[in-house]
Amino acid sequence: MRGIFVSCGEVSGDLYASAFVSEFLRLRPEFAGHVFGMCGPKSVAAGCDLLWSYENLKLMGIFAVIPALPRILRLRDDITREILRREPEAVILIDSPDFHLLLAKHLRKSGYHGKIVSLIPPTVWAWRAGRMKNLKRDFDFCLPLFSFEHEFLKRHGIDSYWKAHPLVNDFRNFDIPGTFRERFANARVIALMPGSRKNEIKFHLEILLRTAEILRERNYVPVFSVSSGLSENLARDIRERVASSGFEIWQGEGRDLMSGSCAVVGVSGTVAVEAMLLNKFMVVIYNMKKLTYLLLRSLVHVKNISIPNFLAGEAVYPELICDSVTPENIIHELCAYLNNPDVKLKTDRILMRVKNLMGSENAAKFWAECVNAKI
Q1: What is the pLDDT of residues 10-67, one digit of tens each?
Q2: CA dist list (Å): 71 to 66, 68, 199
Q3: Among residues 325, 319, 334, which one has the least CA distance to residue 220?
Q4: Contact yes or no for 318/283 (Cβ under 8 A)
Q5: What's the N-to-C CA distance of the chain in angstroms?
Q6: pTM score
Q7: For residue range 123-155, what is the model confidence (pLDDT) as tens digits?
Q8: In the chain, count of helices (H) and strands (E)?
Q9: CB of 16 within 8 A of CB of 166?
Q10: Nearest CA to 264 among 229, 224, 205, 228?
């Protein structure tokens, strides 16, 4: 038995990797001890042998990647050598397309002939459509998160399979945890989600601290989520800054915090999908260097940056980007929802409709079955 290689590059990727590994080992228990790769703590707990930490790929923005390129290329070469040495039956590459497309191409050129799977393929439907040639050339098939992605890939001749988004199963019977109820009984909590990457924290934490001051003046309880995927040093710095300002900190799962909150303010990403599945209103923020934003904006072919808005076909979640990410704008958008029953009712109805587009099956089980059928 040659095993399975699994790779992810951030907190959300680790979540999906762990779900896949758990279901695959449930389906093929004889692979226990033969699943290895680059991942995070959740994947390790699920049974993946950690050879490289996903911290290696925690980069944000084109200008953050460029100076790290020599290190990234060394990482690519190291992983390629290990895969060629072990010859796993399949290589599962999860999200982080800038690195994983590079790795898949290098693997093929270096002589790897096993299956290569893109789990959460690059968003070729939104930008950089040229990556489709990489998917056709280097990957055996794709396992996207959303039905519209699946249909797009199929239309362009890429082998794709889809049944549901993986978070649907996680949130099927989700309830507010008892620890939240005990700690914040009857409080009007606003969940503040500053991100899971160093640069996200850099561009958003100070703005959220100033937003929290206004919320406190208006008798809300702002609570900061400290992502479990952060390095200990960064997590400690955030806790110290938040605590010194007199605000509450939530160190459990971000979804637990959001589930009991009146609304959410957070950095665009998986957290917006989680908020939608919890029927929670969210103000989506995304701040970055202006030059980076202008470059990305020229390349992106879709109007919205948040998946719930894309699925809805309208801005169910307000999106504040770059210069518009201010405490005043955040408060304005929150109040427009919280203080207007008609807006609240309309928004909640749209969220329920969009949730139905996410599928209803166990996506991770489906992924494991697809991989197992191909190896």
Answers
A1: 888 999 999 999 999 999 999 999 999 999 999 999 999 999 999 888 654 455 567 7
A2: 10, 5, 18
A3: 334
A4: yes
A5: 11
A6: 0.84
A7: 998 878 899 999 999 999 999 999 999 999 999
A8: 18, 12
A9: yes
A10: 224
